[in-house]
Design brief:
- The complex is a heterodimer of chains A (about 675) and B (about 60).
- Chain A has about 675 residues and is α/β, with parallel strands linked by helices.
- Helix content of chain A is about 60%, strand content about 15%.
- Chain A is built from 15 helices and 14 strands.
- Chain A has helices spanning about 45-55, 60-65, 75-80, 145-155, 170-175, 175-185, 190-215, 215-325, 335-350, 360-375, 375-425, 435-540, 575-595, 615-630, 645-650; strands at about 1-10, 15-20, 35-40, 85-95, 100-115, 115-130, 135, 165, 545-555, 555-565, 605-610, 635-640, 655-665, 670-675.
- In chain A, a hairpin with a 2-residue loop joins strand 5 (about 100-115) and strand 6 (about 115-130).
- Chain B is mainly α.
- Chain B has one domain.
- Chain B is about 70% helix and about 0% strand.
- In chain B, helix 1 (about 10-25) runs antiparallel to helix 2.
- The longest helix of chain B is centred in the middle third of the chain and has 19 residues, at about 30-45.
- The interface of A and B includes residues 189, 499, 517 and 599 of A.
């Protein structure tokens, strides 16, 4: 990479200035040394800082950690004249070592007012050797992309390897080990391999997932085997149940045939059995009526015996009453009435006065005597009571008669019923009870009927069971069909899955290889850097006896120097030696990058601000003389103090020098201006 | 793909890495050659900033 030109606008002491470092026909693979000479505060370091500001948005000294952030970037005159100043720095870089890119222009603009600043625009033009140019701008939301481009060609982490400030030198290599480690990975495209490793890891996972996704083949096969086994079981059950059903159907048929055979005879016997039952019932009824008749007869006899004298003498009594009424004057009682009355009293144990008559009592004996004697005294006594007693008799007689009549009617009815039953029994008189053979026929018929019902029920049960089994069979067969279809698909997937397994394995092998390779590459480049630096130190043995050891641990690089001229490991390394270290390491890095970076790796330009300020005159001469060899084929832009330019220019080959500038600062106008000198 | 864009040092270290894997995993010569070729192709993609999944998968799956 070669900076063809640098354009500054309102940048610190520069109002508007452009440095053209290379002629249009620059020398590829030559040093292309540009020198900028000037007094103190003439604007040399401003150029050094402007390049960093253009590329990364921070001045180079700030990036290197050599100066604090200073926002007084805008030109003071411009700010005085206007309320704000638009500051811009534009870099045009040739890239002859790239196969496609020809040059790139990067421009950063920022507006500064009093106490504020605002990033305006970051622009990038890329010109290609064979294709149309491309333009990117942060105003089109392409700022990040431009930063990415810059990061690719000039990683900020490696700024120490191509921008060097000898005046404010610090051993940044020792404090920025982590950044340098990252920068080396970027510059040698090890980062791209790390990125590849990450992507391969994702792709490997993807293959593994796909491989795992297709692994249902085995489980599906097992499922199908299970379903087939189930279907076999169901079919066995169906066969078994069908046989059972046939057996029961046969039994039903047999029972039906048996029933048919016995049907007629059974009907007859059933009729006979019915009649026999009827006869039995009649006999039972007859017996009941006879018992009832017997009871009624007994009651009738008792009533007749009990009330016979009343009933017999009722009419007589009636007549006697009439007679008594008729003959009451004569106090005569007809003898039959008297006798009947006395019998009644004696039988009823009622005395004439109506009280209870106790047998053997005096009154009892008196009444007996009266009955026998029939004396007139008794007649009087009887007559005194006869009327009311007779009235009672007469009044009770109809009820007794009615009761007796009822009894007689009942007896008559019972007789009649018994007669009727007898007639019916006579009709059934020739009916014999069932013999053993007939009983067996009935039993056989009943058994056949029962069998018929039971077996028919069993047939229905088997039908239901078969229906369920057929339903299950249908379902399982459907499932089997479905799974077979899936299996067919899975069989195709299985081949795909196997491929995925293979690809996954391949990805893993490549992943391991690349993982190992990226570490090897990094170690190799670091080792090469160390070797190259030590070779350069050795070539400078007149002015340096340094050796370098680079260690990598904990994700960071550490640069350890040893001065071989002393046995003290921690000997002080002078500022001059530090300047030699910085320049030699830059040279070593550039050489390693050229030798090992491969095609299309851009070799950075080298910007050095006061690189020899702490060296002796002899040291300056030696370094200047060796610049061509150290940075062979690289562009060097060097800011040197007044008077040093001649020494350097005369120490190096004139053919290497591309341009020489002198910058002057005008205290009155506060503006620096360049003057191109003839080399 | 321009295989010549891989620098010699890359090729040297690739060879070294492949030999290590070959010995460690007991890979046969034919398979080792396939791995080496794929590795170069992948690095080529990385160098050309063409690391999209499609390209990487194509390298892994090619020759299947």
């Amino acid at each position: 990479m070669y900076i063809k030109r640098l354009k500054l606008e309102n940048y610190r002491c520069y109002r508007e200035e452009e440095f053209q470092f290379l002629p249009n026909e620059y020398k590829k693979n030559y040093n292309n040394l540009s020198l900028i000479e000037g007094l103190e505060k003439s604007g040399k370091t401003t150029i050094f800082n402007a390049i960093g500001w253009c590329l990364y948005g921070e001045e180079t000294s700030v990036i290197l950690g050599e100066a604090p952030q200073d926002l007084e970037i805008p030109n003071v005159n411009t700010l005085k004249e206007n309320s704000n100043a638009r500051v811009s720095v534009e870099l045009e870089i040739f890239t002859p070592e790239h196969s496609e890119m020809d040059r790139i222009i990067i421009k950063r603009s920022e507006i500064f007012g009093k106490g504020y600043s605002k990033e305006m625009e970051l622009e990038c033009h890329i010109y290609y050797k064979f294709n149309e140019p491309k333009y990117f701008s942060s105003s089109r939301n392409e700022g990040d992309y431009i930063k990415k481009i810059i990061d690719t060609i000039l990683p900020q982490e490696l700024v120490e390897f191509y921008m060097f400030n000898g005046e404010y030198l610090k051993r940044t290599y020792q404090t920025k080990g982590k950044e340098i480690e990252e920068g080396i990975r970027k510059q040698f495209k090890i980062g791209a391999i790390s990125n590849l490793v990450r992507k391969l890891s994702d792709i490997s996972t993807e293959y593994q997932k796909k491989a795992a996704k297709g692994s249902s083949y085995e489980s599906l096969s097992n499922q199908i085997e299970n379903i087939k086994y189930k279907i076999q079981n169901i079919e066995d059950s169906i066969n078994k149940k069908t046989n059972e059903k046939k057996f029961y159907e046969n039994e039903v048929e047999k029972a039906q045939q048996k029933k048919e055979e016995l049907k007629e005879k059974y009907g007859e016997l059933k009729e006979k059995q019915k009649k026999l039952q009827e006869m039995e019932k009649l006999n039972q009824n007859k017996k009941e009526y006879e018992n009832k008749l017997k009871e009624e007869m007994k009651r009738l006899h008792e009533s007749i015996i009990k009330y016979s004298y009343i009933l017999i003498s009722k009419d007589t009594l009636k007549r006697s009453i009439d007679d008594i009424e008729k003959f009451s004057g004569g106090n005569k009682i007809p003898p039959d009435i008297k006798e009947s009355f006395l019998d009644y009293l004696l039988n009823q144990h009622i005395c004439i006065c109506g009280r209870e008559l106790v047998q053997g009592s005096e009154e009892y004996e008196r009444l007996e005597k009266l009955k026998l004697t029939g004396k007139e005294d008794a007649e009087k006594e009887i007559l005194m009571y006869i009327n009311p007693q007779l009235s009672v008799l007469i009044k009770s007689a109809p009820k007794i008669e009615k009761d007796i009549k009822n009894l007689k009617e009942n007896i008559g009815k019972f007789y009649q019923e018994i007669e009727n039953i007898k007639i019916k029994l006579d009709e059934l008189s020739d009916l014999n009870s069932l013999n053993e053979k007939e009983k067996k026929i009935i039993d056989d018929y009943h058994k056949a009927d029962s069998d018929y019902i039971n077996f028919k029920q069993l047939v229905e049960e088997k039908n239901k069971e078969l229906q369920n089994l057929n339903w299950d069979l249908k379902k399982e067969k459907e499932q089997l069909e479905l799974n077979l279809q899936k299996l067919e698909k899975e069989t195709r997937n299985e081949s795909e899955r196997k491929k995925m397994v293979e690809y996954g394995k391949m990805a893993d092998i490549l992943l391991n290889a690349l993982d190992s390779l990226k570490d090897k590459l990094f170690e190799y480049f670091v080792k090469e850097l160390e070797t190259k630096a030590n070779q350069i130190f050795k070539s400078m043995e007149k002015i340096s006896s340094l050796s370098l050891n680079i260690k990598y641990s904990g994700g960071a690089l550490s640069f350890n120097y040893e001065d071989k001229s002393t046995i003290d490991d921690k000997a002080y390394i002078s500022e001059g030696q530090n300047q030699i270290i910085g320049i030699c390491l830059m040279a070593a890095f550039t050489q390693v990058l050229k030798e090992l970076g491969g095609n299309n790796v851009l070799i950075p330009f080298i910007i050095m601000d006061h690189p020899f300020s702490n060296l002796s005159v002899e040291g300056k001469k030696i370094m200047a003389k060796n610049l061509g060899e150290l940075f062979k084929g690289s562009q060097i832009i060097m800011m040197v103090p007044e008077g040093e330019m001649d020494l350097i220019a005369h120490s190096t080959e004139t053919s290497n020098i591309s341009s020489i500038f002198k910058v002057n600062y005008d205290d009155y106008s506060k503006i620096s201006k360049k003057e191109a000198l003839n080399k | 793909m321009q295989k010549d864009e891989i620098s010699d040092i890359y090729l040297k270290l690739i060879k070294e890495t492949i030999d290590e894997i070959k010995n460690k995993k007991g890979l046969n010569d034919e398979f080792t050659k396939i791995i080496e070729e794929k590795l170069k192709n992948l690095i080529q993609l990385a160098m050309l900033s063409k690391l999209d999944d499609k390209n990487i998968k194509r390298v892994i799956e090619e020759g299947d």
